[in-house]
Design brief:
single chain; 444 residues; alpha/beta; Urease, subunit C, domain 1; TIM Barrel; 2 domains; nine-stranded mixed beta sheet; eight-stranded parallel beta sheet; 17 strands; binds (4S)-2,6-dioxohexahydropyrimidine-4-carboxylic acid
Length: 444
C-alpha cells in the first residue's frame, strides 16, 4: 500500500545540510516524515513546488515586538504576521517591553499572549539586570525562554548593565548562552555631545566603532574569566569582527541585513532618521569588514533586529528620534538579493538562518529538513523580481527602509509544523504559533 501523508510538497529544490536537489517532502503530524521521490504516495494536500526552492524555516533570533506596553508600534500578532509574510517561521523576541521582561511573571505572560495568537513560533529573552542577577539561573530555564539578554549600552528602554562587575556577576550565574548588545556605555555618555542636532549622519560619530569594540572586548574578557558562552548581537564594526575571529571559543556572532546592505553616509542622506539603529550603520569599510566576517564563517547567525517605531516618532528631530527600523519581513528578500548577485551562497544563507540558530541556541527539532524535525519551511522563488514597498509591510509601524528597492528572490510560502501559513502573499491559516523548545531546558 502506498504511503500517505498530511501534506506533500512536490518537485521543489530542497536546500539542506546535504546540498541542493530536487526532492519531494512528506509531512505527517507536523513533522517531516519522508524526503525523496514520493510520486507513489498520497496526501491530504499536495502542493506543486516546481520552480521553487524549499529552505529550512528561517529563524530570526532578534526581533522587538513591543507587547506589552508599546503596542502602538507593534504587538505579538502584527509582528509575527510581518514575520510569516516574509517567510520567517520562528522568532526570538527581546525584553525591552513595558513592563520589562525581567521576571518569571512577565515571561509567562508573554508566552501566554503568544500562544496561538502569534502566527509563527517564538521564544522570549529575559533581560539581565543588577537587580535580577541572582534569579537569572532559574529564569533562563523557564518555558519559552531563549536565554538572557544584556544591554551593555543604553538603547530603546531602560535595560542596562554598564559595568564589568555587573557583567561578571551575570556570566557567573548563568549556564546557557546569553546575548549582548555590546556598546560601551561610558564611551557613549562621554561622546553624546558629538550628536549634531538635526543631522543623523552624526549618529555613527557619537556611537562610534570604538564604543562597539570596547564593549565586545570587555565582554569576551569576562567570558574567558567566567567560562561563559556569549553571543554578540548586531556586530557593526570591522575592528569588532576582526577581534571576534580570534575568540570563537567563547563568542558567537550575529550580524544584520541592514549592516550588510546599507552604508553611511548614503543611508542617512536618503533615509534621514529612518536609518537610525543602535549600533549604527557605518561606512563602506565597516560594511566590507562585516561581509568578510560572514564569508569567512566568523558570523554564526543573521538577526533582523526588527525594531519598529511609528513614522511620527521617527520624524522627531535627531537625536530625539528613536533608533530602530522594521526588518523581520525584509530579511529573506534582501538576503536572497545578495545571494542572486553572488555575495553569498544559498547554502550559507541556510546556515545563517536555520542551522546556525539551531546550533547556537540548542533548538529542539528545528533548523533543518530532516525526518523527525518540525516541518518548518521557507519557500522561495529565487528568480522573482519584486519591488519592496511600505504598503506590503504587515508590521504596525507600516514602513521599511527598503521602500522602492527592487530585489531578485522572494519568499512565496511559509510552512510551520506542516501548516501552510503564508502562500503567495496571503495568510492561509489561523494563528497557531507555539513556543520553541530548547535542548538545555527540555523538561521545562
Ligand atoms: O536600534 C535599536 N533599536 N537598537 C536596539 O538595541 C533597540 C532597538 C529598539 O528596541 O528600538
Amino acid at each position: 500500500m502506498a504511503d500517505t501523508y498530511d501534506l506533500i510538497l512536490k518537485g521543489g529544490t530542497v536546500v539542506n545540510h546535504d546540498g541542493e536537489g530536487s526532492r519531494d517532502l512528506g509531512v505527517r503530524a507536523g513533522r517531516f516524515a519522508a524526503i525523496g521521490d514520493l510520486s507513489r504516495a498520497s496526501a491530504g494536500e499536495v502542493v506543486d513546488c516546481r520552480g521553487l526552492h524549499l529552505l529550512p524555516g528561517v529563524i530570526d533570533t532578534q526581533v522587538h515586538f513591543r507587547e506589552p506596553g508599546l503596542t502602538h508600534k507593534e504587538d505579538l500578532e502584527t509582528g509575527s504576521l510581518s514575520a510569516v509574510m516574509g517567510g520567517v517561521t520562528a522568532v526570538f523576541e527581546m525584553p525591552n517591553t513595558d513592563p520589562l521582561t525581567i521576571g518569571a511573571a512577565a515571561l509567562a505572560d508573554k508566552v501566554k499572549r503568544g500562544h496561538h495568537r502569534m502566527h509563527c513560533d517564538f521564544a522570549f529573552f529575559v533581560g539581565g539586570t543588577a537587580d535580577n542577577t541572582k534569579d537569572l539561573a532559574e529564569l533562563e530555564r523557564l518555558p519559552g525562554c531563549a536565554g538572557i539578554k544584556v544591554f551593555m549600552g543604553s538603547s530603546t528602554g531602560s535595560l542596562l548593565v554598564a559595568d564589568d562587575a555587573g557583567l561578571r556577576a551575570i556570566l557567573k550565574v548563568i549556564r546557557r548562552r546569553a546575548s549582548f548588545h555590546a556598546e560601551d556605555e561610558p564611551r557613549l555618555t562621554e561622546r553624546k555631545n558629538l550628536c549634531i542636532e538635526g543631522d543623523p549622519r552624526s549618529h555613527p560619530v557619537w556611537r562610534d566603532e570604538i564604543a562597539a569594540l570596547k564593549a565586545t572586548q570587555r565582554l569576551v574578557r569576562t567570558a574567558h574569566e567566567t567560562g561563559a558562552r556569549v553571543h554578540v548581537l548586531h556586530v557593526s564594526a570591522v575592528q569588532e569582527m576582526e577581534f571576534l575571529r580570534d575568540h570563537k571559543d567563547v563568542a558567537s556572532v550575529e550580524t544584520t541585513p541592514h549592516h550588510l546592505t546599507l552604508e553611511a553616509p548614503d543611508c542617512y542622506e536618503r533615509l534621514g532618521t529612518r536609518a537610525l539603529m543602535n549600533p549604527p550603520v557605518r561606512d563602506a569599510v565597516h560594511r566590507a569588514g562585516i561581509w568578510r566576517g560572514l564569508i569567512d564563517g566568523v558570523v554564526d547567525v543573521l538577526g533582523s533586529d526588527h525594531a519598529p517605531h511609528t513614522l511620527a516618532e521617527k520624524a522627531k528631530t535627531y537625536p530625539a528620534s528613536p533608533s530602530g527600523m522594521t526588518g523581520v519581513q525584509t530579511l529573506v528578500p534582501i538576503m536572497l538579493d545578495h545571494v542572486n548577485v553572488g555575495r553569498l551562497s544559498l547554502m550559507r544563507f541556510v546556515d545563517l538562518t536555520s542551522a546556525g540558530p539551531a546550533r547556537l541556541f540548542g533548538i529542539a527539532a528545528k533548523g533543518r529538513i530532516a525526518v523527525g524535525y518540525d516541518a518548518d519551511l521557507t519557500v522561495v522563488d529565487l528568480k522573482r523580481r519584486e519591488t519592496i514597498a511600505n504598503a506590503q509591510i504587515a508590521s504596525r509601524a507600516g514602513w521599511t527602509p527598503y521602500d522602492g528597492v527592487t530585489v531578485t528572490g522572494w519568499p512565496v510560502g511559509t510552512v510551520i509544523r506542516g501548516q501552510r501559513v503564508m502562500w503567495e502573499g496571503s495568510l492561509t491559516a489561523a494563528a497557531r504559533g507555539e513556543r520553541v523548545r530548547f535542548l538545555e531546558t527540555l523538561a521545562s
